[in-house]
């Protein structure tokens, strides 16, 4: 097991605080602007903007993001526990819900694949 140093722990906490600050800024912006989107989505947009502008390099937040990704299951437990409140819905219509999830996932994958293929072909034609 890797031994943690104070420098390593300090960097981890700093990265986690930066990610938390971006999330909180996103939730605050959504509240101020009264937009009907989750604050986390706005925070991800802000994070993307900081990466795209070069203000923050993705490697600068890699350690903190890695820890959050490793513990992602903890973030889904509340959502899974809420299924207990809707057990009847899942029992009666669960197969329909799974069918919609399956088809929508397949549709997203196909549209993404065809879009990437079209962009690659367009790029090859225009580079020549």
Automatic annotation (TrEMBL):
Protein's membrane topology: Multi-pass membrane protein
Subcellular location: Cell membrane
Domain of life: Bacteria
Signal peptide span: none
Transmembrane segments: 12-31, 37-56, 63-83, 95-116
Pfam families in UniProt: LrgA
InterPro entries, per database record: LrgA/CidA
Keywords linked to the UniProt accession: Cell membrane, Membrane, Transmembrane, Transmembrane helix
GO cellular component: plasma membrane
PANTHER family in UniProt: HOLIN-LIKE PROTEIN CIDA, HOLIN-LIKE PROTEIN CIDA-RELATED
Protein's recorded name: CidA/LrgA family protein
Source organism: Pseudomonas extremaustralis
């Amino acid at each position: 097991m890797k031994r943690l140093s104070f420098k390593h722990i300090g960097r981890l906490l700093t990265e986690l605080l930066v990610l938390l600050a971006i999330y909180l800024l996103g939730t605050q912006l959504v509240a101020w602007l009264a937009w009907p989107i989750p604050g986390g989505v706005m925070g991800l947009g802000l994070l993307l903007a900081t990466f795209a502008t070069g203000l923050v390099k993705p490697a600068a937040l890699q350690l903190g993001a890695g820890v959050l990704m490793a513990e992602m299951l903890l973030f889904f437990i509340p959502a899974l526990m809420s299924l207990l409140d809707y057990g009847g819905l899942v029992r009666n219509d669960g197969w329909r819900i799974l069918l919609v999830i399956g088809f929508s996932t397949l549709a997203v994958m196909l549209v993404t694949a065809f879009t990437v293929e079209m962009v690659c072909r367009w790029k090859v034609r225009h580079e020549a």
